[in-house]
Design a protein that fits this description.
Layout (H helix, E strand, L loop, with lengths): L4 H13 L5 E2 L1 E3 L10 E5 L5 E8 L4 E17 L2 E16 L11 H9 L11 E11 L14 E9 L2 E13 L3 E11 L13 H4 L4 E12 L1
């Protein structure tokens, strides 16, 4: 059987990763933001973390790191998260040195490349934004999730560069009297937001995974 270059890259990626480890976020058109109701909880940017992971060279070179949340809030009504939003500062995008295995490369090189117009064009679009459009209970009899302990399905508008799409993914949310904690891990397709290296069909773009895994551990405290 004759495979195209993209197909070969996909086969290598799947072989090296051993299959998916996170849920694929459902992606749709932008939706109306959820109405804020109840008590406001400020996101603790010191303890909230956002992780990212992608692959290069057909899955043979994982790349991963972190990005910082700069501000945001949630509203809680009747013991459940009703709405919220937060900003992610792409200027803080960092590459974990452990993900750089080539002797002639440094984490700063990849950080600069990802922040350049080749990818996120951080000079023009410094913030990624997430605005909740809906929070629903997670029903394990109707949905299957790779996230242990999933309690909810979160939908929200994710803005990357100048494009906004709605994504839905499982999350674990715990609401206490004075704080909220949430965690999730899901996969988005960067090309849906028009993020390509060189051109969409170029060989250089083929060997970089379109799938990007996003993970977050969020903490919020009642105002």
């Amino acid at each position: 059987m004759k495979h195209t270059v993209p197909a070969l890259a996909l086969l290598v990626a799947l072989a090296s990763c051993g299959g998916p480890s996170s849920d694929q976020a459902k992606t749709e058109e932008k939706k109306e933001a959820a109405v804020s109701a109840g008590n406001t909880f400020a996101i603790d940017t010191a303890t909230t973390t956002v992780d990212w992971r992608a692959t290069h060279k057909g899955g043979m070179a994982p790349r991963f790191g972190t990005i910082k949340v700069t501000n945001g809030s949630l509203t809680v009504e009747n013991g459940a998260v009703a709405a919220g939003n937060f900003d992610v500062d792409l200027n803080t995008l960092a590459v974990d040195p452990a993900s750089i295995t080539e002797k002639d490369k440094k984490p700063a090189d990849l950080e600069g490349h990802l922040k350049s117009p080749d990818f996120f064009d951080v000079a023009k679009h410094p913030l990624a934004k997430f605005v909740i459009t809906g929070v629903a209970p997670y029903d394990s009899t109707k949905q299957k999730s790779l996230l242990p302990g999933a309690t909810n399905l979160i939908s929200g508008n994710l803005t990357l560069k100048d494009s906004t799409l709605n994504i839905t993914f499982p999350a674990q949310i715990i609401v206490n009297g004075n704080d909220v904690s949430a965690n999730a891990k899901f996969v988005i397709d960067r090309s849906a937001w028009g993020i390509h290296y060189k051109t969409e069909g170029s060989p250089e773009n083929w060997v970089i995974s379109k799938d990007v895994e996003i993970g977050f551990t969020l903490k919020a405290v009642k105002k």
